[in-house]
């Protein structure tokens, strides 16, 4: 069980009007306190977060034994991905799905994504069909890798698609629930997008057939909240591969970073704190951080 500080939790989860900002949630983050039996994976599930994002937000904490009373950062604020804000947008780099609907605030959910680069694709598609209690039909490749897999798995606790599924126009790609919640927020699927069951329940009700779906890969996001520009930096695809395979990764390279920051800052470009930008890139904690120096005002 996670015990939240009432004051800090209230600040951390205060809503931000959708039309007022490029950020959902209140930056920079929320707070939880671990109990003796918690792991970071447990805390992630309890707070609707993914495994990788909570690990990166807490680099000094033992993920398997945080310890009684350990203060855990919850990455509950998110800069919205770039581009059109309609339908579903999935950002592979942060392993998060965003849902946009006219007249409603954006929603965001952690997702598990493809384990191999060959199973990852970006671009635009749409929701082709929806199904309650979907059966799971392993592909030929899956059965070659594991000959013991049955030809079909009916609904139930052994079905990896969970209670509901959204089928995309991309062959074999499904947004679905899961019977393995610890895989949410990790690179573990064969290309589908797995959500916690409560999240797929919400998404299923909110998304009609024909909803546009856009998949992007944006490890660096920039956005405004009021008069402050924020940056949010996640692992690249190559770093995420390395983290899954070895538990380590090399520093990132973002050759067009300064150009992107300057463009996003616009007329405030002279106030960019490049030290803060480079620190955010070095740490890659997936937390929105302010990167503008205060403007000088004379009276």
Notes on the structure:
With 299 residues, the chain is an alpha+beta fold. It has eight helices and 17 strands. The protein has helices at 6-12, 40-46, 51-57, 140-145, 197-206, 237-246, 257-265, 274-283, and strands at residues 23-24, 30-33, 71-74, 78-79, 87-91, 96-101, 104-110, 113-114, 123-132, 164-168, 174-176, 187-189, 193-194, 212-216, 220-225, 228-233, 289-290. Strands 7-6-5-14-9-10-11-13 form an eight-stranded mixed beta sheet, with helices on one face. The chain has a three-stranded antiparallel beta sheet with strand order 15-16-17. It has a two-stranded antiparallel ribbon with strand order 1-4. Strand 10 (164-168) and strand 11 (174-176) form a beta hairpin.
Total strands: 17
Which spans have pLDDT < 50 for at least 5 consecutive residues?
Answer: 1-19
How large is the share of residues in beta strands?
15-25%
Residues in helix, %: 10-25%
Q: Strand count, sense and closure of the main sheet?
A: 8 strands, mixed
List the secondary-structure elements in sequence, H or E: HEEHHEEEEEEEHEEEEHEEEHHHE
**Structural class, from helix and strand content?**
alpha+beta
- Helical element count? 8
Widest β-sheet, arrangement of strands: 7-6-5-14-9-10-11-13
Mean pLDDT: 88
**Cα-based radius of gyration, to the nearest Å:** 20 Å
Q: Outline, from the CA principal axes?
A: globular
Distance between the ends: 53 Å
SSE topology sketch:
Elements: H1 6-12, E1 23-24, E2 30-33, H2 40-46, H3 51-57, E3 71-74, E4 78-79, E5 87-91, E6 96-101, E7 104-110, E8 113-114, E9 123-132, H4 140-145, E10 164-168, E11 174-176, E12 187-189, E13 193-194, H5 197-206, E14 212-216, E15 220-225, E16 228-233, H6 237-246, H7 257-265, H8 274-283, E17 289-290
Parallel strand pairs: 5-14, 8-12, 11-13
Antiparallel strand pairs: 1-4, 2-3, 5-6, 6-7, 9-10, 9-14, 10-11, 15-16, 16-17
